[in-house]
Design goal:
The protein has one helix at 19-28; strands at 2-5, 10-13, 47-49, 54-59, 62-67, 74-77, 80-83, 87-88, 100-103, 108-113, 116-122, 129-132, 135-138, 155-157, 163-168, 171-177, 184-187, 190-193, 197-198, 210-213, 218-223, 226-232, 239-242, 245-248. By secondary structure, the protein is mainly beta. The chain has three domains: 2-12 and 96-193, Archaeosine Trna-guanine Transglycosylase, Chain: A, domain 4, CATH 2.30.130.50; 18-88, Archaeosine Trna-guanine Transglycosylase, Chain: A, domain 4, CATH 2.30.130; 197-248, Archaeosine Trna-guanine Transglycosylase, Chain: A, domain 4. A four-stranded mixed β-sheet has the order 8-9-10-11, with no helix packed on it. Strands 19-20-21-22 form a four-stranded mixed β-sheet, with no helix packed on it. Mean pLDDT is 88; it is low at 17-31.
Length: 249
């Protein structure tokens, strides 16, 4: 059974709104200057409430509608409009580049890129995506192959617990099957993969590693990064593991 380095939760800090944006929002709220979607604007990043759940943000010289999904919605206080985006959905308009939030389902971390919330990382582990004291944390100890990741050599289990993943060049890829009885599981600060059973052709490492076939009828050997037949179990014997040794018993 293989044990790998624990997944490192992605941590990001929410960006504070700048005083300049607050001043711009104040100016936009002056009588006679009420903005409209698509209308022209001059103060990049300024915000103006449309209603309790929507705001307008000044992007590239035009007002753009922006959802305010956080608990506070869109508030006007002392003439300053503020849109609560402590929760968001992918593709929502956003206002602070490289800001981070949790998606409403708490299973995804989003980042603000080119005025749109985009998926930074899935957070399928037990702790999901959480925000505390403006710090966003993402539990990615469970992930799907192809999901975005931020830490090279980070490890995770697939949602069905049948494989382990490793982070390579910003994406989780399968590092090997975990088809033994215990599957892939998160234990404390470790990812544990029960790799004592596999199917013919499954990817593998290291070279020469032995495992049991899923039906117990043969021993498989890792050859050129894939499992091949090594020995058939004769008579009524079955492949099994005793004291860490793979054999026909």
């Amino acid at each position: 059974m293989a044990a790998m380095t624990a997944p490192r939760p992605m941590v990001a800090r929410l960006s504070p709104a700048s005083a300049l944006l607050a001043v711009a929002a104040l100016l936009s709220a002056l009588p006679g200057c009420k903005p409209k979607p698509g209308g022209s604007c001059k103060s990049e990043g300024a915000e103006s409430c449309l209603d309790e759940k929507r705001a307008l943000a000044c992007h590239d010289g035009k007002w753009e509608e922006m959802p305010c999904r956080g608990a506070k919605g869109c508030l006007s206080a002392s003439g300053v409009d503020q849109c609560d985006q402590s929760l968001a959905e992918a593709n929502d308009t956003c206002n602070l580049t490289d800001d981070f939030v949790c998606a409403s389902d708490k299973r995804t971390m989003l980042s603000c890129k080119k005025h749109r919330w985009t998926v930074a990382q899935s957070c399928l582990g037990a702790k999901g995506c959480s925000v505390a004291q403006r710090v966003v944390k993402c539990d990615n100890s469970v992930a799907a192959a192809g999901d975005t990741c931020s830490e090279e050599d980070d490890h995770a289990c697939t949602p069905d617990s049948k494989a382990a993943l490793v982070c390579r060049s910003g994406k989780f890829i399968e590092s090997g099957p975990c088809k033994g009885a215990l599957g892939c599981r998160v234990t404390g600060d470790k990812i544990e993969c029960d790799d004592t059973a596999a199917s013919l052709g499954d990817p593998c490492a290291p070279e020469g590693n032995l495992v049991c076939a899923l039906d117990g009828t043969m021993i498989l050997r890792c050859a050129k990064k894939a499992y091949v037949a090594d020995e058939k179990c004769r008579s009524k014997r079955k492949c099994g593991v005793e004291r860490g040794v793979i054999a026909c018993y």
